[in-house]
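Chain A, query sequence.
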Amino acid sequence: LTGEGFEVSTAGDGARALAMLSEAATATATRPARAFAVAIVDVTMPGISGLEVLGKIAAEHAPTAVIMLTGYGTIEGAVAAVRAGAVDFLIKPVVDTELRLALQRALRQSALAAENAALKAQLATRFGLDTIVGQDARMAKMYDLVEAVAPTKTTLLMMGESGTGKSLIARAIHQHSPRANKAYVELACGSIPETLLESELFGHVKGAFTGAHTDKVGKFLAADGGTLFLDEINSASPAMQLKLLRVLQDRKFEPVGSNQTIEVDVRVILAGNQPLEDLVAKGLFRQDLYYRINVVRVDLPPLRERLSDIPLLAEHFLRQHSAAVGRAIVAISPEAMDVLRRYPWPGNVRELSNVIERACVLTRSGTIKPEDLPGHVLAGRAVTHAGGAGLGGVGSGLAEREVIDHEHPPLGRILPGGMPLAPGRAMPLDAAMREPEKRIILDALASSGWNKAQAAERLGINRTTLYKKMKALGIDPRGGDGATSAAG
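Chain A, predicted structure.
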């Protein structure tokens, strides 16, 4: 093997081999940690048997692939070795060609195992609790609650405006749970038309409805053994709420068009961006479902109520986005930070991340300055849509909102078409807001290449709401002449 170019170490028994594996995997002041790519282990050895060594390597040194050797080969022995994790099982005397082929297979498996371990480490780094930045007292309380609930199977309900980080926290809970090695599946209920939501959640069988050409696995089955995160649960229809109640109680469901009952082991995390208590009071959300999902509740405060966290988050996103764009941007100027503190952040943490990313792309120096920030952030007023909710969703609570251009100072009160409203004149609010809302939606559609999902995300609304607004405002969904003339 040395002649073939391999670096080879030998051990006379299983105990010494395991000690060498542990020593190699431990970093010292003069040597980084490293793992043996392949271990060639005899079945019969003094002390610990080869199969015991194989089991310990599989449990404690996963990137190391194992080839078993024996002079007394049987089918039963080979099957036992492969089931225990061996890549190959060779009979002595070993033929050189067979050993080379076995080594090639073992090296490929070792490389895949090392890559898998690296990806898991990246997931833990990207979605761990330490990626949730904030020192606000309510955030500290939320961290404690998340750490307590993560190891359990308890259903969790998160409430907060859009962009407050519900998805990030759901992922962090999954990463800190015993289910971390299983599937994590997300679904935003508001982004799926009601007619398709049941199929998305529970799957369907071939022929269940027009267009169902093959069987489809739903999100609940895809997340079996892992975690399912259902966002915008407040947008689920009454019929869907009833079906969700049953599956959350029994963890059983039937795919659309099938009579077969499927049972799953799924940890469910739900989130909403509207107060469910209000929806229950109005008869828009089932009371029994509300009590079923409100086992452990996490309330995420909007960013405008976490002013002390804005510098921490801005610097966190600066490091993240400057590395992503490959630029050495080292700081945010005090003047720019003051602007960030004054802005109300209707889009919350997501909007702050986008603003810092934009600044990292546009700045011409190593420091982000006020002129690198969007016009509406400089003006200190949020771009909003008709209905009074900011981009962050329902209940943003801002005392004053004005529709303004992204790159210019606030225009104050405006008429349809952009003309200022003369003092003493009044007009219906719906009429006054129609044209500005139309322009904002057209701008979001144009900047996203008429990708409706991206445009809806930019606007802080779900895709169904965007379609309804486009229809009401006469915007051609294909981006045709109607859209062009309206933009003009």
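The CA atoms of residues 95 and 405 lie 76 Å apart. Residues 384-425, 480-488 have pLDDT under 50 and may be disordered.
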